[in-house]
Amino acid sequence: MGEYLLRCPRCGRPQPPSALDCANDDSLLRTEYVAKRLTLREDLPGLWKFIDWLPVKGPLRGSGEKPVTFRSQVLARELGLSRLYISFSGYWPEREARMATCSFKDLEAPPTVERLMERKEGQALVVASAGNTARAFAQAASAAGLPLVLVVPTSGESRLWTTVPPSESICVVSVKGDYTEAIDLAARLAGEAGFVGEGGARNVARRDGMGVVVLDAALAMGALPDHYFQAVGSGTGGIAAWEASLRLIGDGRFGSSLPRLHLAQNSPCAPLYAAWTGSAAPQGSCPGGMYDDVLYNRKPPYAVPGGVRDALEGTAGTVCAISNGEASLARQLFEEGEGIDILPAAAVAVAALQRAAASGSVKKDDLILLNITGGGVSRVREELEIFTLKSDIEADPSALSSASDKSLVAEIEEILGRRAPR
Ligand SMILES: *Cc1c(COP(=O)(O)O)cnc(C)c1O
């Protein structure tokens, strides 16, 4: 099991095991595992094979598929690359990929849910999302029977589905407002007694779960890649890839140089690109008109110690901004070449690789890892049963903004309590 210490990368002090922040500064805390050498636990299913480097005591049964890594033939040839590997997070049974909510949020949710269950505090987890994150947490919480509150803008309700019957201990709160208002309401709810937020990029279970992409790939390739390509919104996956690579260097068997991070955003709604290149921050209608709005995050963990900027500086990384047109062509190229549908976000990463190959910023024989962060939705629709989650409560965006108004908390507790006594 993953025995570890939480340490602040800035001040170097150990922190309490469930801390999200350092007591002294705003760094992203990092796990320091007792096992310095990665031993694959073949007896455990899915991503739990990497439990040595996950912050949990045991696996969450019924949840936690892992991505697959394979060497690309067709796309590699199209791009003129000889050593291109693809990490695929999604549903593709022919390649043994069975992440049923079809994105690499399926790597974050199971360790987060398991870690929370192990704390045995009985809190309900609060997640604001109407997309890949919500589906992944709904699926993992259903496996665990963990009380979960999904806070979604009304417009996102139809995107909530799972491939297992959703458990009775999920409460869907739809907010009569936009995504930002849903996030703000979720933050207020998470501050109430009996509720807890998932912590986003600050949660090591999320980051180390995503790190499995690099761990799985390094085992498949026999080495750390020279380059890592991923489409980012918050950039948490980039931080996770960097941290996992540091651990693999510590292991000693996978080389001693860090992969260069190539993070891709969708222009013009590209705050990380703006921050890294010093160009004007996006304004106006974002995320309206984006190729994939999962790639828009208003407050990415960029400048915090241990955040995206440190990850880019530590790896001589870059950020690029991809247009909708480039992404759309790249998606077609990938889907025809590799034979599986991918999420629009993943196409943005393909376009970034295509650009880097054309410009010579990656060389023909470089060892490259392309993170396909989501795909196979059309395969899921063909093969699995889809369960849609229904809204339980309609909330006003201003709910919980005054200390005297706790009626929403009472309503949620009634729903959770009625269904699943805690
Ligand atoms: C969440 C997500 C991303 C971006 O992830 P980061 O948190 O920015 O690393 C990319 N692709 C898909 C499919 C996603 O769901």
TrEMBL record:
Q: Where is the Tryptophan synthase beta chain-like PALP domain?
A: 91-374
List the EC numbers from the record: 2.5.1.76
UniProt key word Signal: no
Instruction: Identify the cofactor(s).
Output: pyridoxal 5'-phosphate
GO molecular function term, any single one: magnesium ion binding
GO BP, one example?
D-serine biosynthetic process
Q: Does the keyword section mention Transferase?
A: yes
What keywords sit in the KW lines?
A: Coenzyme M biosynthesis, Pyridoxal phosphate, Transferase
Protein name stated in the entry = Cysteate synthase
Q: What organism is recorded for this protein?
A: Methanothrix harundinacea (strain 6Ac)
Traced from the root, the source organism's taxonomic lineage reads: Archaea, Methanobacteriati, Methanobacteriota, Stenosarchaea group, Methanomicrobia
